[in-house]
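Sequence in, structure out. Go.
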Amino acid sequence: MIRAINKLTAPLARRVNLMVARGVLALVNDAAKMQGVQVKLLSGEVRDMERFQNYGLTSQPHAGAEVAGVFVGGNRNHGLVLAIDDRRYRLKNLQGGEVALYDDLGHIIKLSRTGIVITGATHDITIVDCPRVIVTGGDVIADGISLKTHKHGGVTAGAAQTGTPV
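Output:
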């Protein structure tokens, strides 16, 4: 009796076992409407899959990143990558509720408990085609000089230019 039940349920069990997989990213095709990835799965299986990303956020991970994928109905020809992570670059020790964007170069934008922090910038931070930058409710401090409280020396009332901050 048990043998008969196992024989009947074996195809279903195989499909369930094939539905979720873990693998390693081999290639990325970022030119298509939906990002395509090639993933190396267990036992030398290599699959081309679509990568789902959250709306408004996108990335192109490096080969060697780890992949979690699913196969619709257990069909290994219809794979979807739902998550990619890379332990080589992942930020650690965030506090509860903190969020961060980061890359492999160490650039970090962190929504911390104390404010928004940009660190690790090894290049200029560029704001493109922005008609204005508006700061309200606080001060802007550049290289230790306050925009609100710095003083200029040698200024004549109504002069076209002022001296350097002191």
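Check: The two ends are 92 Å apart (CA to CA). Residues 99-146 form one domain.
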